[in-house]
Amino acid sequence: MSDMKALILGGKSGLLGQALDQVLQKHEWQTMCPDRNELDVFNSSSLTEYIEKNRVRIVFNAIAYTMVDQAEEEDESAYDLNRKLPAVLGKVCKSSNIGLVHFSSDFVFDGKKNTPYTTEDSPNPQSVYGKSKYEGEKVLLSKPWDKLLVIRTAWLFGPFKTNFVDKIISLARKKDSLNVVHDQVGSPTYTLDLARYTLNLVNKQTSGLYHLANKGRASWCELASEAIKCAGLYCRINPIQSSEYPQKANRPPYSVLDCSKYNMVTGKSPRPWIQSLRDYIYHYQ
Ligand SMILES: NC(=O)c1ccc[n+]([C@@H]2O[C@H](COP(=O)([O-])OP(=O)(O)OC[C@H]3O[C@@H](n4cnc5c(N)ncnc54)[C@H](OP(=O)(O)O)[C@@H]3O)[C@@H](O)[C@H]2O)c1
Prior knowledge:
Elements lengths: L4 E5 L5 H12 L3 E3 L11 H10 L4 E4 L13 H21 L3 E7 L22 H14 L6 E6 L2 E2 L6 H11 L2 E5 L3 E2 L2 E2 H13 L4 E4 L6 E2 H11 L5 E5 L19 H7 L6 H12 L1
Parallel strand pairs: 1-2, 1-3, 3-4, 4-5, 5-10, 6-9, 7-12
Antiparallel strand pairs: 8-11
The structure holds NADP nicotinamide-adenine-dinucleotide phosphate (NAP).
The site of NADP nicotinamide-adenine-dinucleotide phosphate has 23 residues, from α1 and β4.
């Protein structure tokens, strides 16, 4: 029990970090979630000192530069957080002989496939965000060790921080109709499920690259329609093409994640995103 001490980077304010904090605490872990004023995550000595002083056994890195469009103009910041930080964390965790769980993204893929992406598929990111996330994975996986987990996930929704589902529900309360992109298809994922599934992998003491997302697939338009239905609202959703909603960064038209490696290793399977969406909306909206 005394070994269950986790440092959650991004745990104070991030969408996933806060979910990890809640789930780990429920499973009787002792969690530490310093914010950027309390710990300089880029400073190896401060990190090592923090880890030793608090007897941290595992670091969950849910810090990232996640503003996909803004990254096109702020590539230096994106690479700092998405490539340099995992490199620093990798070195520190390895030399302290503790675990590291790092999160990556479905945006490392170009979306040219039309069947779910496995961990064996080759990334080919099409945006600065996707490229910087891929670089972050590579820097860790080029020298893998038995306490390193890299988890690609996708399309997060959940409590504690505004996300796509919240925005759609809030707009649906004000408007009669909304236009939502229908030609991008992915794996909507509930942060609290992702945190539980991540813990399952940690408990299996496995390492390497995994895909983790709720089961099934949806377009943004389908996700929006389902969210509005679950929230008991009426708002017409008009499917539109990405070309009708221009954004700075290219996004993969298809980025559904195949989680069969997770299923094989844990003997468990993620639940369908629609079920998780209902849970989220009934509990938190
Ligand atoms: N959201 C998605 O749909 C999605 C999809 C696929 C993969 N992912 C991956 O999942 C992981 C978690 O994403 P998320 O959506 O939970 O991220 P998020 O909500 O944007 O949170 C990012 C966290 O990083 C912290 N942070 C940013 N810059 C920092 C800095 N310079 N120093 C210290 N902390 C800093 C933020 O703190 P402040 O609040 O202080 O800024 C925040 O706590 C990331 O690796 C992301 O790439 C997310």
